[in-house]
Amino acid sequence: MFINTIFNFYIFNNMQNDIFKKLCSLSPYAYAQIKGGGSYAQVFGYVYFFKLPAGVIVMADVEGLPHTSSNIFAFHIHEGDNCDNNFLNTGGHFNPTAQHPNHAGDLPPLFSNNGQAWFAFYTERFNINDIIGRLVVVHLQVDDFTTQPAGNAGEKIACGKIVKI
Ligand SMILES: [Zn+2]
To answer: How far apart, in whole angstroms, are the C-alpha atoms of residue 92 and residue 96?
Structure first.
């Protein structure tokens, strides 16, 4: 235990990049509660957004993901403002002036482990205040990071509106 504590202290204080340090000292600035729809109503989770001086940490915790051949699920911020009507009005990816996967709202995919996915990711692609009121969307398929306009990610299975805390 003592050795472990020393080790952790050493690592923590000698990291060249201090994003994780900052994350440990912050409360989330905004979040989205993710809920599945249609055949995927069991999908549920939260996405938290932490404001850093130059960028944003996105932390996702999603469960109830279906079993698929890849168990990888495309994950984006969409420019719409509601998840109503089984995600009919979610719009395109946030910041349509760039091409996929260079939209401001393009995020790493969720890698599911028996239905559960967790990750944290740092980005300077958007200002945190510009995504308040936008949507986080989970897709059924892998994001191929090539096909326009959305990476051939398949149907939307879950969605949540980003709200400021
Ligand atoms: Zn995109």
So the answer is: 7
- Mean pLDDT throughout 82-100? 92
Q: What token pair was written down for 80?
A: 């719409």
Q: How far is the CA of 76 from the centre of ligand 1 (A)?
A: 7
Q: Which pLDDT value is given to residue 79?
A: 96
Q: How many domains does the chain have?
A: 1
Q: How far is the CA of 99 from the centre of ligand 1 (A)?
A: 7
Residue 79 lies in a domain: yes
Distance 113 CA to ligand 1 centre (A): 24
pLDDT in tens, 60-88: 999 999 999 999 999 999 999 999 999 99
